[in-house]
Amino acid sequence: YVVKTPHSESVKIGRGSLEYLEQTREDYLLLRKYVSGFVPETYFIRVANKDGSPTNCIVQRRLKNARPLYKISDGELREPKIASQLLNFINGVMEMDKDTGKIPDMFGRPVNALNPRFYNPRYCNNICIADADDGQRKVYLTDVGAITEQAEKKDPRHRLSMVLVRNNLKKFKGSLEKT
């Protein structure tokens, strides 16, 4: 298993709170509904941090030989089994977005916000390919939080990032459909 705890900057914006843990668990359950086979087994618990105050802890099943999408070649992504899984995953994400206004954190792996790989699920470090229990390679989403329309309304920069993620998700889907 992998243990994830909020870093100090995250705690400052509330990610160490019980409310945040409960919201993340709700997001996880939503993701399990829409992209069920692509989300590893995950548990949510409260623990004491090094100074004794309560904080959140997310425990997730460790994935074997996991590689984030940004480290995988376009050719490998176009292999029929991988492309099919990615298309099923993307379709589930689009359905979740349409039904709930939420999408997973697929913002990409930026060097800076102007990098074209930022806001692009194709270069996301939260989507990976790993060895499944049956020995086959499988697509997984490792960040179980979801980004909401509500956040868009509070911050215009967030609204722009959501538009970019949605547009890039459609482009990524189109590139996979050509295989």
Question: What does the model show?
Answer:
The chain has 179 residues and is of the alpha+beta class. It is built from six helices and eight strands. Helix 4 (80-100) packs antiparallel against helix 6. The longest helix is centred in the last third of the chain and has 22 residues, at 156-177. It is globular and about 50 Å long. The model has no long low-confidence stretch (mean pLDDT 87).
Q: What shape does the CA trace take? A: globular
Mean pLDDT across all residues, rounded?
Answer: 87
Portion in beta strands: 15-25%
**Which structural class matches the secondary elements?**
alpha+beta
As a whole number of angstroms, the C-alpha radius of gyration is 16 Å
* Element order: H for helix, E for strand: EHHEEEHHEEEEHH
Low-confidence stretches: none
Largest sheet: 3 strands, antiparallel
**N→C terminal distance:** 35 Å
How are the strands of the biggest sheet laid out side by side? 1-3-2
